[in-house]
Amino acid sequence: MPTRYDFALVAALIVGTVVPYAGHDHPVWVLACGAGQIVPLLWRRIAPVPTFAAVAIASAASVPVLNVVTISDIGIFIALFAVVSRRGWRPWGIAATAVCVLGAGIAAVRWSSDIEGARGAQVVFIFGVNLLAVIATLGIAEASRRRAQLIEQLHARARDAEHERDQQAVIVAQAERARIAREMHDVVAHALAVIVVQADGAGHAISRRSAPDPTAAQALSTIGDTARTALAETRALVGVLRDGGGDGLAELAPTHDLTALPSLVDGVRATGRTVLLDEGSVRPEDVSPGVSRAAYRIVQEATTNVLKHAGDEARIWIRLRRRDELLVLEIEDDGVGATDASTGGNGLLGMRERVHAFGGQLWTSPRPGGGFRVAAEFPTEGER
Fold it and tell me: What class of enzyme is it (predicted)?
């Protein structure tokens, strides 16, 4: 579509055509021919060849009726510039140049017809001036065309370099995923498998005693179940690391979400801790899957920190609330307390990254009187 600069150019040319020749014998012809030479220039960027044709026809029509030079005659040179700079030389640039040279000769003859004296010299002079204008236009158009080609080549090189960089990043990421997958399979998965076997073996040995200890049996059962879950998730994650990334959208998070929160709480209670869960009016199906998984991991990490740092007598409160379009989590304990440094830093950093990934916020701080508090807010739809 024509730009405001195109409209400004056309308006200026029309004013420059009409005003100086307002007293001409044929002002209507001046306006009509000028409009035909100028108005089509609005579309010279998107349709240079039809624009040139329209301007050339109007210019040819003005020769028999106007024996004066007007500002509108510049239109043919602007149209020639558009053809050469945007369509090149073959075939349209050469054809447009030939039309302009022919028109320069016809105009020279017509404009010198009323000049007394050496008419031949006048024709040559006027034709020479017009020809110089054509040559200058062609030179500027060719320079503009080459500059546009150079810019396009630079853009193409930049796109190629960016694509190559992205491909290299994908290769590096795939290699790193493969390395991590090997480490997880060889170290973490093996260790978890050993834990499962040892826990099951110890539980079986206790059950065969004449007076088995139910507390020890329950603890070993919890250890075995937790290790099995962790082993299954580790194997799933190893599979994702090895196979994912084809479209960049592989789901790296394990599948636990808020629907598994009661099971998580039961597992913590099995360690002997008191856990109070208040889900309020929050329904997992009202929360986006990504947020639901992230919220589960926040609760899991917070309760794990309590088990590691808060002492055996610590009680845990887990509260979920809906506030407008936000999911609000709060996990508190009344244990011996912990600091960001005492938790090793990675757990809290991981929680913060999960929350920020969904456009939420996380707060962590010691509680007055002892214990620790973790609070988080998520947009329920996971908007970034």
Answer: transferase
